[in-house]
Sequence to fold (302 residues):
Amino acid sequence: MALALACPAIGQQPGGSPPPPAAPAAPAVRSPNDAITAAAPADWADIDPADIILFEFDGGRSVVVQLAPQFAPDHVANIKQIVRSGHWGKATIYRVADNWVTQWGAGEDEQEKSPPLPKGVKEQPDEEYSRSADGLSILPSGSVDPYSQMSGFALNWPIAMHADGRVNLAFCYGTVGVARGPAPDTGAGSELFAMIGAASRRLDRNFAAVGRVLSGMEHLSALPRGTEPLGFYGPKQTKIPLRSVRIGSDLPAAQRPRFQVLKQSSRAFADYLELASHRRDYGFGSAGAALCGVPVPVRPAP
Fold:
């Protein structure tokens, strides 16, 4: 006589009890890049080609810089005049200081050794190291800033605000500044530097910040370091020539570099700021973030 064996149904526990319910899936933790990717076309603003400079250094190194005339109008006007005058015909990158700056211009090693400035360039512009906050719509970063009363964003730039009602552009990675000699020299704009290392906020309100690198940072940050004091190139090192420099609006429309910046007034930016300030996607979130740890998103225009 055959024996009939009772077997539990597939998915059923021995003894006839149903399987325990599956644990609910953990909610996805979003990253700052998720906010940028989700931004709508209307959340992006075109960058004026009149404020874009295209540098072409030796070896096909293309570096695109956005100028900030709202914060340093005289220095920016000087830089545009210098570009159009041909003053940088023999300019080079002559200083690369590790975790600090890459510097270029027509000088040999210091601004005062540069050739005479072209006509129309102010040799000693005003100290445009900060400006009044009047008329600016400021979005607070929401995090404590050791260098100011409040950090935030204005005109889609990272800024610091002080008790005297003035604001300054922050010297973050990729910020472009004007080299100068000791005070009262303010720098004409013929010698520029880009921050290639950690944020250097101690330069805030001490040097004129005139812009930021939009693309090509790898061509400034991955160069051989200078062997002389302060990172200047030594006699046995080859300076890197500047082959051409042009202002975006001076080029035919089809050749203009086109970039966009995420509007600080958009909901997408608010979402990005929240996510970038706490980075819960890493695991343990933080209470806040340094201003330069929340870079304003920019992209090539689609």
